[in-house]
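re: the backbone from monday

yeah here it is again, tokenized this time
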């Protein structure tokens, strides 16, 4: 069996496995290779399995139109995805083939689906239960404290941290985890380098030229390269500063941070609502607790 496991924020264990040969697991290994190993006694577990569609079954007692069927604490979507929760463990079964994006037919489930559309949306709802929260932001270390830069997509979060790649002082490129005590936790997914990032890389002309040539052969919606940057055994760092790129004088960072992060995952609202109906997640708890923001000036 092909599998990979890691932990997030020293609190959550995540395991992904497949009972079939799958390039998705190879992608997961690459994307999460800099995360910590499994921890003992995690506060939450997320177990994900890629399986053949014939293995995904659910004895359902209720229907949600043509979108899903569910019973107590389990839901199966028309896509074939099955979610269930037992105590502090969420189990997810993903079919071997799915429809994704604008492609009108099923294809082998890609790793980006597992990371971007399963793992991260679930973390978004679990973290507030642990007095933590995602920020759609980048972060780097300055004197062993975290400097966080948040902003809307396309406003320069990645550009602002590229100069720190060689120093291994980057904590996060696109998502950073913070808690109510004023600490930031690394979320070291590799930086996704697109063609417009190449000129800002702190590399020589020859290496930039290699990236440029590769960009000519890469579809514009795919990264030209994934760059690993994290090299530390520390699990959290005190936050010294939080910047908002779109308005440096913003007086309500907690509200803006939540709006930006919620916007990034707004296309999952219908899925999360149906999971709430089935009892897999609890939106009332999430709405109440998702106001987390450290008291940072």
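seq for it, each position gets an aa:
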């Amino acid at each position: 069996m092909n599998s990979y496991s890691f932990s997030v924020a020293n609190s959550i264990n995540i395991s992904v496995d497949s009972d079939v040969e799958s390039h998705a697991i190879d992608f997961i290994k690459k994307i999460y290779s800099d995360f910590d190993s499994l921890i003992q006694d995690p506060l939450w577990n997320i177990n994900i399995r890629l399986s053949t569609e014939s293995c995904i079954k659910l004895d359902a007692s209720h229907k949600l139109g043509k979108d899903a069927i569910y019973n107590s604490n389990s839901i199966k979507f028309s896509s074939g995805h099955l979610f269930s929760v037992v105590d502090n463990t969420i189990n997810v079964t993903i079919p071997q083939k799915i429809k994704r994006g604008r492609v009108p037919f099923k294809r082998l489930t890609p790793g980006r689906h597992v990371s971007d559309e399963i793992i991260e949306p679930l973390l978004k709802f679990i973290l507030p239960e642990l007095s933590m929260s995602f920020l759609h932001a980048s972060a780097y270390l300055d004197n062993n404290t975290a400097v966080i830069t948040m902003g809307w997509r396309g406003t320069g979060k990645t550009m602002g941290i590229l100069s720190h790649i060689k120093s291994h002082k980057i904590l996060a490129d696109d998502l950073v985890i913070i808690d109510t005590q004023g600490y930031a936790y690394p979320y070291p997914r590799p930086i996704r380098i697109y063609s417009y990032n190449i000129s800002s890389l702190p590399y020589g002309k020859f290496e930039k030229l290699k990236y440029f040539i590769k960009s000519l052969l890469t579809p514009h919606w795919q990264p030209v390269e994934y760059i690993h940057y994290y090299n530390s055994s520390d699990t959290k760092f005190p936050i010294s500063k939080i910047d908002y790129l779109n308005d440096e004088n913003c007086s309500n960072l907690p509200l803006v941070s939540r709006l930006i992060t919620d916007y990034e995952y707004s296309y999952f609202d219908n899925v999360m609502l149906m999971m709430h109906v089935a009892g897999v997640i609890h939106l009332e708890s999430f709405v109440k607790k998702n106001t987390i923001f450290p008291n940072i000036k």
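The two ends are 49 Å apart (CA to CA). Residues 11 and 42 are 5 Å apart (CA to CA).
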